[in-house]
Amino acid sequence: MNIVLAKLGISLLCVLVIVFLLFFKNRLITWLDRKSVEKTLLISWTILRLLPFLAIYIVAGMETTSDVNGFWDEGSKASLGQVVYRDFWSPYSPLYPYFLGIWLKFWFNAKMIVLTMAAMDGVALLLSYHFFRAFQSKGRLLFLSIIYLLLPGSLVLCIVGAQEDVWMWLFVILAYLVRERTLRVEWYAVILAIGLLMTKAIFVLILVPLFLIEKEKMRFLIPMVLIGIASLAILYPLVGWEFTQPLDEAQTLRAPNIPSIINPLFHNAIGVGEKFWNWIGLVLSVGLATLAAWRMRHSDFRIMLSRVWIILYATMMIVQQSAYSNYIFLFLLPLVFYTIDWKNKVQLTLFFAYNVLCVVHPSFWWRLGMPCYLTPSDTSASSDLLLDYSMQVSIVVLTGYFIWLAFPKSKEV
């Protein structure tokens, strides 16, 4: 449990530093208003991403753990020219291991995977600054950028867990920024298609609400279809139907999510593990996101996308039986930059608690042997199991709260 205690300690320290900074928020915003955006973000990233990486993996000499070793397996084999899905298993999109493999050409070590994640997180943060620049002052956006880099849900999951979920947000806002610059729907569609090929199969879910509100639907659809056909034309002769490996992830039972916390209440009679739960989760997450997008179809695209993104992937996090709390990293940036009211003490308290829980729980749950509760008595069979189940319920409830915050209310529409 040492890693659990380490994550808890780091998380609480991060929260304390953030609370300290919030006491001087107005002064810091005024000071940051006079600073260069690129230099400030680079210095902040160096202090809060590069230095922790060097301290943990170079100075302390710690080895990579958990998902990083899986990414290393994929990336190292891809860098040696092996074929994804045929020569090695992958739950990710086909270009993902090859992108990691490019970075491994510079340093053939699993620690390079962590550095890659940190670099991509920095790019996502920079693009997020430009994505939201029309809505807030430079100083405020830079202040929120520093807060984001300090949050346990980004710092720990990026540097210790080496999670890649933020890549999806990176690609969707990159697509918008390119469209804004070029005024071409085709480039917007191409980047979204590349994002799907570079990240995870669940990236395709955001395309449903985006297609619904898109006015130039054919110009949006045709490039994506062409790229999809070309991808299949390359993959199928090489690997056959093995390119569907990422879909197998939906069958993996994880926690916390709604099925995992209600299963013991129904004495294991709800069919946990069955495919129909995946379809229920898919309909609920995409349905809520599509409804939100339609209600906000006349709003600024950036506002609409930020809220729809949170609704879609936060809902997916608690309704899909294969989801777990690391997915907070997927929607943390729009939550920080747009949804959270940084003057509301209740929201901030819940948000900080949410970050700590989402960081600590996966490691705690895994070290307990990934328990699946079958009866009410199972949840209190030991103090550790009771703590685990309590964290699961708290994360699901808090996720629901932030979905509610992001969902467009009638008066807002």
From TrEMBL:
The chain crosses the membrane at residues 6-24, 40-60, 106-129, 141-162, 187-213, 220-239, 276-294, 301-318, 324-341, 348-366, 386-407. Keywords: Membrane, Transmembrane, Transmembrane helix. It comes from the Bacteria. This is DUF2029 domain-containing protein.
